[in-house]
Amino acid sequence: MPATIRLTTAQAIIAFLKNQYVERDGCQNQFFSGVLGIFGHGNVAGIGQALLENPDFPYVLVRNEQAAVHMAAGHAKASNRLKTFVCTSSIGPGATNMITGAALATINRLPVLLLPGDIFARRNVAPVLQQIESPSTQDIGVNDCFKPVSRYWDRIYRPEQIITSLPEVMRVLTSPSECGAVTLALPQDVQAEAYDFPVELFQKRVWLIRRPEADSLSFERAAAAIANAKKPLLIAGGGVLFSEASDALAAFASQTGIPVAETQAGKGSLPYDHPQCVGAIGATGTLAANRLAHDADLIIGVGTRYSDFTSASMTAFQSPDVRFVNINTAEFDAYKVSAIPVVADARATLELLTAALAEYKVSGAYAAQIAELRQKWDTEVHRLFHLDTKPKPAQSEVIGAMFEASAERDILLSAAGSHPGDLHKLWPTRSPNGYHLEYGYSTMGYEIPGALGAKLADPSREVYVFLGDGTFLMMPSEIVTAVQEHIKVIIVLVDNKGFASIGGLSRSLGMGGFGTSYRERSADSGKLDGEFLNVDFAGVARSLGAHTIKASTLGELKAALTEAKQMDRITVIVVETQPGVGVPGYESWWDVAVAEVSEIEEVRQARAAYAQARKKERYHLSPIAGDEAEEE
Length: 632
Ligand SMILES: Cc1ncc(C[n+]2csc(CCOP(=O)(O)OP(=O)(O)O)c2C)c(N)n1
Ligand SMILES: [Mg+2]
Known about the structure:
Strand order of the largest sheet: 5-4-6-7-9-8
Radius of gyration: 25 Å
Number of strands: 23
Oligomer: single chain
Bound molecules: thiamine diphosphate, magnesium ion
Shape: globular
Distance between the termini: 66 Å
Strand content: 15-25%
């Protein structure tokens, strides 16, 4: 008989999780950095009790379950998916608070493990507090809502089910192609139930993070397509960073001369001053990247899922002959845009391509065009960093000041508002993962908890958070967690009286910014166009425990950043920016559908412009280039 140990289901889960390790390129580390969560009756006596008995597995109390998942996702992103946290919640609202975080993680392909409490498996006391009942089945609950946002979902009705479920949990969390949110719903009675578990289950287990290589035929076709390309452009997505392929990409780009454009998730794949780096691509792209994309005859997509921001809503690639090669661990992404699919690890494939393309170099004319576009873009960034706007600084000047204050390995983190677009264009990223944008789900509220997770992934890197006033009001609460855990991050909070981003979008579509600024309802008009609301953001941050500084001018902001660097605790700098001074778009667009009929003339005009712009949207259905080549 194999040796067994009698544990509750919750005790067994914690004992298993703390013994999981990952290994890549010969380096090993513990996969879970601990457990984040909030206790309620649905987990306090189960997972809570197990954590009490396992003090070597750190438990961090957070303020909001959604924030716990963001913190885990930020941690996973900043550690290239080699680490994450477990998130525990009670049943009901504590559990469903995690759904937004789960969607964020799955969309961004980040591993997070969620353990929501669930209603009693034995049912005799139903309906329990916070249970949603169904007249048609007893086998449904709010945790079923996690199914579409999880890459793996399971509910544990009997203790021994975890023996087969937990290995599946780990397979998905450590898979380079499948990873995302994993949800294990845990009925509260089952959490506390004991079972004789095999001791083997709790031995140290090391999960190999594979670097799959391409099949030879796909690889040869991809290499041939590149060798024949006259105007190739490589798009670096998040997969380049996850794969730690920056050096391999730099070698490939230097040798071939192929320019590299970056998605939001892939920005920082190359340092901004690498001669082949042409910066952001797509709706929030640089002039350099967007011009090159427009005429490219071959797009090499590495670790990208071609979101609408990357493809400028399928208008970015206008050459009639454009073809695609996609390098991706996920077959799903590799096959997009009718590409030659190279289902493989980014680093391994780029190294092999560099060797296979020793003879290839872009033309002198193309190289000169790349150099000239890069030069023009540098000038534009310099202009926007030094607008000298008065009396308040423009947002681009705030970004410039943050860049000047930060050091090479520091991290710039943001998620929603007007910041992602401005930062994607302007932030000169100096080191891999130095640019941390959650732009798969663009979740207001990710920034503070995401930053805490990123900081815990590598405390030697300073984390700067660029935060909107709208986002801050949505979830300021994790400042308390930062104080509790002694986690230092620097937050620059831009007070622009509401939603500059959506307000600007609304105005551009003929709706005059309706319902997007923070103003009182006017007694005269009955609308939200009265006095501006005067929220004391610094006061809120201070009351939660942060060191706070108010800056009214660019000079004060620079001084505040110097002070913040010297602080040993979370610091919030509040800066008001000059309204209406935005960063323009650069020969790009984003499809936001405009009303087809309207009483408002401006909306009708916007619709006409919209119909015109949409004509550039393309399907990329060309036969796969490799096949064509073979037929000739
Ligand atoms: C949770 C969530 N709700 C709504 C949105 C849609 N949205 C995107 S940006 C934005 C406004 C953000 O305002 P703020 O943080 O002040 O940034 P600003 O636009 O002023 O730069 C909204 C409402 C979102 N991205 N996330
Ligand atoms: Mg704002």
